[in-house]
Amino acid sequence: MTASDSELWRLWRDAAGRQEVGERLRGLLDQIDQQVGLSGFACEQSGRCCRFESFGHRLYMTGLEVAWFRLLVGATPVFESGGSMPLPVIDPKRDGCPYQVDGACSVHGDRPFACRVFFCQAGSGDWQAQRYEAFQNEMKHLHEELGLPYRYMEWRQGLADAQANGL
Residue 158 — left, alpha, or beta (φ > 0 → left; ψ -120 to 50 → alpha)? Predict the structure, then answer.
């Protein structure tokens, strides 16, 4: 029996709202931040990679990651500067991340794993691929531990689906 979309989003939301799951996910993000610090790669914060079609790539993550992110940022994401903005319009056809505002990431502190490990720098591809693979293995393991369905989805579509299912 296959779970409906609304049931999947409810499962992911409920799991993402559990303190121990949030701590595990935050721990994984902290680990990649440490690895990035040691890698020699640095984000130029140009915003180019956030414009997916123009840059020629896609951003993918699991339903659990999308649900956790949505719970973190809530209905009014807060900028690192302290200001806030209404939840952006989620349009999977838009060229770029809905959280990119004036060329910058409005949720930089809570950005997903894929955003933390992707760099525009030449030579970062192999390093990124290794980190993606290791992280996805950790995510699969976490899903198995929690008895959650594992679904890998494009970022904007996942955000739109989460929103359509009440998250």
Answer: alpha
- CA gap 118, 120 in Å, rounded: 7
Strands 100-101, 104-105: parallel, antiparallel or unpaired by DSSP?
Answer: antiparallel
Pairing of strands 60-62, 104-105: unpaired
Q: Report how far Cα 145 is from the mean position of its chain's Cα atoms.
A: 20
pTM, full prediction: 0.84
End-to-end CA, the chain: 24
pLDDT of residue 107: 84
Distance separating alpha carbons of residues 114 and 142, to the nearest angstrom: 17
Give the pair of three-digit tokens for residue 100.
């990119």
**8 A C-beta contact, residue 60 and residue 113:** no
